[in-house]
Amino acid sequence: MGMTASTPCSPMSSHTKERVTMTKVTLENFYNNLIPQLEEPLVRRGLFRRKMRAMCMQ
Question: Of 8, 14, 41, 51, which is least packed with CB atoms within 10 Å of its CB?
Answer without folding.
Answer: 8
